[in-house]
Structure formats: C-alpha cells, structure tokens
Amino acid sequence: MATSRNGKIRVNRKKGGRNLRPVIVFLIIAILIIASVFLADSLFEQKQLQRKPYVPSAAERHKLPPRQKNQPNLVVHEDYTATVVPYHEEERPVRSRPRGSGNLAIIIDDMGKGMQEARSIIDIGVPVTFAIIPGLPKVRQVVQEAQRRGIETILHIPMEPKGYPERRLEDNGLLLSYSSEEISARVNGYLREIPQAVGANNHMGSAFTENRDKMAVVLGVLRGKGLFFIDSKTSAISTGETVAREMGMRSASRSVFLDNIQDVGYISKQVRQAAAIARKRGGAIAICHPHPATIQALALELPKLRDEGITFVPVSSLVR
C-alpha cells in the first residue's frame, strides 16, 4: 500500500493479481477434467444398459462346438440311419401339450433276449405288441409272460440286410440266396417255435424286402396260417405291404421309428410325433426296441398320452 501525490491511499493490485491467476486457471482446468470424466462414465453406463443381449444367428449357432454334457450314446439300428439332431429336454420350448383321440400301436422289436426288459415294458400298463425273434434264448419265457399279461405277440422275422455279411444277421435268418423251399421251411419253423404269434414283421431286411419274389414266398406261408404282415419299412422301396395286399393279406406299415438315437428326450419327442400322426390319421404304428433309454421314455410318455386321449392298441387292430 502507498500514498499518492494528492495524499490518497493507493492499493497495489498488480502484484497480487499476478499471483492468483495461475491458481484460478488450474482449478478451472481440474474441474473441467473431473466433470468430463464423470460425464463419459455416465454415458458409457447408459449405453451398456441400452444394449440388447447378444443372440447368435442360426448360422453362428451351427458353428458352435457340440454340447459336452449329457451327450447321447448314438446307437443306430442296423437297417436305418439316424437323420435327426439329438434332442435335449431342457431345450424344448414350454408349451401346452396337444390333446385328442387316436389309436396308437407300439411294436417292441427284438424281444426274446431276456425277461427283465419284457416285464419292465409290461409294467408300464399300456397295451403294446412284442415282436419276438425266433431262436433267442428266452423266447418261450417271454411268450408265456406276454400271454399271461395280455400282450400281443408277432414274429420278428430276420431277413438279409444290405451290406450282408458285413452286417450281422441271425444264423436262422432268411437270405436272398435261399431257394423258395428253404425260405418256406424256415418260416414254418419260426411258427412252430412261436405258435402264439398272430402276425409278423421284418427284422432288418433292407435287401430282402425289396425282392418281390422272395417276399411272396414268406407272405404265402403267413397267409396260409391266417397271419397278417407289418412292413417295418427298413427300406424306402420295400415291397412287403404292396405284395401282401396283392395277395389279399391283412397288412400295414410302420409310421415312426422311435429310438434310432438312444436319448430319452429324443425318443420322447418321437413318441409324441407318433401320437400326432395317430390323431391326424386315426391310427399309427410306431416301432422301437427294448433299450433302457427307450423303456424310460415309454414309461414317461405313454401314461401321459393315454390321459390326453390317445388309445393304445395291439397292432392287429390297425391292419386291414
């Protein structure tokens, strides 16, 4: 502070102003930087909240690595090829189950190996049909148990598949190289072993059933005994049902294979597909095998379908 010439007190502001100016500038810059950081964080969080979750496209899902958990044991029937992706129950959309009437016959192929599988299927409490392969170790016991429990039985006739002999066939099976006399003798032998059979279907036979002349010999024996024939359709060009109808026999063809993949979820889906066909057409025939996964799926689905209006019938009810 100083005194001017006219006697007034004069304050020297220049020196103090120079000292405060850098501090003020620094504070302003710091405030701007902090504000910009907070603003940027806020905008980033807002954008993240607005982002939709990533959902892979169908093409991208196709490229994803296969599931490692609960992979099914792929057991493919010797005479047909699995063409369906393994089905997992947890991936099924939740939707109401359809209801409605329809007749469904379920044939259990390859029966005659053991009693436990036969009893497990019978205990489900739903009418089915046992297709029994002649010559298996427990044929007599399985037939007797089926008869005692009211289960229909038919012959499951082993026939030559494509790729034989690399593809295994039972020793008592029918080969294309056999004469008509040999084929007739073998079929009559099957009937002597299982006289309770009311009909027959083919076991394997993708090659044999395509041959009209050989099938006519087999069907001639069955017709003579009053039996019907179910064409398992192990070949898309099987002649079984066509020749049977030409001969005036009662016959039919299967609608669905249930267990070409041994996975409970997949088999359950196939059972529901068979039921859908039965509702649409009035009747359907499904074929499966006494595998553990199959028995589990049947025990799960058949009582539900019965409650939803499906009537389970022996396959003899659906031949015409």
From TrEMBL:
Record-given protein name: Divergent polysaccharide deacetylase family protein
Phylogenetic classification of the source organism: Bacteria, Pseudomonadati, Thermodesulfobacteriota, Desulfuromonadia, Geobacterales
Naturally occurring in which organism (per UniProt): Geobacter benzoatilyticus
Keyword set, alphabetical order: Membrane, Transmembrane, Transmembrane helix
Domain of life, source organism: Bacteria
Transmembrane segments: 20-40
